[in-house]
Amino acid sequence: MKRVTSADGTRIVYDRHGEGPPMVLLHGDATGKEYWKPVTPLLSGEYTLTISDRRGRGRSGDTEPYSLQREIEDARAVIDSVDGEPVVFGHSFGGLQAIEAARDRAVRAVVAYEPAILVGEYREQADLAARMQERLDAGDPEGAMKRHVKEVIHGGELEGAALDEWLEEWPVWPEYVTFVEDSVRMNRALESYELPERIDLEAPTLLLTGTEAPSHLRDGVRAAHESLVDSRLVEFDGLSHMGPNEAPEQVVETVRSFLAATDAEATTD
């Protein structure tokens, strides 16, 4: 276990695995770095992986007041802890962290699986944080987190008994409920985030999405693709928002191909 201190003094904990050039993995609204377990053995033979816990999750600390900018600073602190310019690979909220952190850090490449970006009419009407807070205020943290899972993972299409059955098979439930207050503040920050019209990263970016993901996340990844000056968008048939867990080999192979292509382009320039 290693640690780095973020700009506001918060302790961010991370682990290192493997050998090779550096890659930083940033998880989304998961319980912690364990989200990356299916991916880690596939990448650790090729990369030195730095896998961190977000603030308020796993073994990392937390400091009030919360803000998206502080989460971005956490990602930058982790990036600064590695030797050389890393590939930064983020999922969901971690995907947004990866993109924003790379605006102010030298990285080899950015990979983002469905970065948590809300756009258009969906963003204008977004009220998930308020609806979750309503259940929290009523003394129902489990109900609040069910609203989060229903919206973020299932796009509002799974509810009632069907949602309960799915949750019974989900390995991180009910531990996931303990992070409900963190999820509320995260959603509130995402509802306020506005995607810039143009994002000119120095590093190439790979954006990933699945055909079974919620429509608002698919809209967000397409909007990010339009904003980023140098990006490639790949869509996986049949995968949901949890694609890196559902089909880690397929996702990793796509990442490998992208990085090999960008290295080849850099060599010929």
Helix percent band: 40-55%
Mean pLDDT: 95
Number of strands: 8
CATH topology of the largest domain: Rossmann fold
CATH superfamily of the largest domain, please? Alpha/Beta hydrolase fold, catalytic domain
Given as residue ranges, the uncertain stretches (5+ residues, pLDDT < 50) are none
Supply Rg: 18 Å
The CATH architecture classification of the largest domain is 3-Layer(aba) Sandwich
Keywords: Hydrolase
Domain AB hydrolase-1: 23-253
InterPro entries: AB_hydrolase_1, AB_hydrolase_fold, AB_hydrolase_sf
Protein name: Alpha/beta fold hydrolase
Characterise this structure.
The chain is α/β, with parallel strands linked by helices and 269 residues long. It has two domains: 2-119 and 195-268, Rossmann fold (3-Layer(aba) Sandwich), CATH 3.40.50.1820; 122-187, no CATH class. The chain is built from eleven helices and eight strands. The chain has helices at 40-43, 68-80, 93-102, 120-125, 128-137, 141-152, 160-169, 180-192, 215-227, 243-246, 248-268, and strands spanning 2-5, 11-17, 22-26, 48-52, 87-91, 109-113, 205-210, 231-236. An eight-stranded mixed β-sheet has the order 1-2-4-3-5-6-7-8, sandwiched between helices. Helix 2 crosses helix 3, helix 5 (128-137) packs antiparallel against helix 6 (141-152) and helix 5 packs antiparallel against helix 8 (180-192). The radius of gyration is 18 Å and the shape is globular.
